[in-house]
Amino acid sequence: MTTDEVENTPAHGVSRRFVLAAGAVGAAGVVVGGLVGGVMGRSSGATRSTSATESVDVAIIGGGVAGAYVANRLAADGRRQPVVFEASHRIGGRLWSQAVPPATGVMAEFGGMRIPPQHQAVLQLAGELGLTTIPFPASTTQSLVRLRGTRLRRGEVERVDQFNYAMPAEIGALSPDELFSMINRSVGITSETSLSGNQSGSWSETLTWRGRSIDELSTLQFLVELLGHDGAQFVRDWTAFEMWATSASTWLGVSNSTGGGSYAQVEGGFDQIPIQLIQRAQRAGAEVRLGEQLLSIERAEDGSVQLDVLSVDTGVTRRVRARAVVLALSAPAMRHVVRSSSMLREAPALTEALDQLVDSQAVKAYLSYDRPWWTDLGIETGRSVSDSVLRQHFYLSSDRSRPALLLAGYAFGDVAADLLAPLVPEASSDSSNELSAASRQGITSVLSEVHGIEVPQPIGAVAQRWSDADDGTVPLWGPGDAPHRRMRAAITPVSGVSLHVCGDALSLNQGWVMGALETASLVLQQGFGVDGI
């Protein structure tokens, strides 16, 4: 299972985005200097309005990867003048990298963290931006699997029934790889099936389970009918991702569309991709305004688009008129704008696509040490899994002579994230991501139980909880219409208006940078005649 980029988005309330602060911000929030670190929380409820109306050429709403890419390409093309409005004070969206001293040479990635080999366009873009990619640790034969009280090395696992799950004998006798091959064959996926590297797409339309389209079945229903309750639980625990409510096609796509090679990571932090894109866009003439939140959007009488934009710092709302608008928002942020905009509420191509999304929580906790203690267990780098509250454990350093970093816990899905949440309080506008002494001790106790040794106390500890209060949870397609049709229709949801939608939320590769780039490229090509990836 390779949904490591998956960090979901809740559907409730106005989300907040965490963003890098501008080096210098004018009264209107225009970025005029370099980007520096900073965190922004929700705006206050009180607002004041101004009657002044500003006109811009292209308003890009959202400073994540999709918005940054569109701004970069439009600015480089030179025919349009893009202005980026970002509600928080950090560029990057769900890409957020942070150093955890004393560990060096590797970053904590609170959101997306790796690039599968199938996503060549992302690797190429990183190269174009002058960024270096390095290998990302993968599971090895020495990695641990600790499920239902049994602890084994991954290389020791030959049969599913080595763990305490009640499954039919014919299923228990399979190896995990054989089990997943059997799941694929049950719906018609064979070695000849081409997913084209997409976790959703037209490949799913001909696949069925017991006469029903896998696009219309939930993952839970499909796996329970095929494997029984304990069999479904084993699949969840082995992959360490909870995706019960997604469509069966989404789950199968996540399982099959990526992997099969070496993953990569961006040296210096994954968020350098959107940061570098934005900085280049600025040098080409684009404007970037941080702390500017879109409240509503409507059609103007002259055919342009009318925006109500809130300054989260001053509480002043002003009207902006744009010749074209690009919504590059997360699903919950987009839902908020839809609720307050009659033009979007009456756009079924967008509202029905948003309704089909399943949002999940996610939690990541990183600990740094003076040395990689896991090497004492024969583990160099890689990924272990457990059914503990921490779920996944990534060993990110192996040099015994240097400080080391561990992704101590990565829980994905509402149940998993809720179990880990008490150890990882939510970040807020007036707090850092540093974990308390009590949280460090709690996580260390779980690590000790999973690894069967007394794990030392960390030197540094940071975490991020993506929940209902945040804008970073990853939506995945739920049961319903084929996702590739939903995506195509939602890109330009309102006829007669230059309004475009992009981002990974409504893409064929949700939770991955590739999904954001694909939809951004469709918007560039269809809306502006500019090439993308």
From TrEMBL:
Domain Amine oxidase: 69-520
InterPro entries membership: Amino_oxidase, FAD/NAD-bd_sf, Flavin_monoamine_oxidase, TAT_signal
Keyword presence, Lipoprotein: no
GO molecular function: L-amino-acid oxidase activity
PROSITE patterns: TAT
Record keywords: Membrane, Transmembrane, Transmembrane helix
Membrane-spanning ranges: 18-40
SUPFAM superfamilies for the chain: FAD-linked reductases, C-terminal domain, FAD/NAD(P)-binding domain
Any one GO BP annotation for this protein: amino acid catabolic process
Protein's UniProt name: Unannotated protein
Lineage, top ranks: unclassified sequences, metagenomes, ecological metagenomes
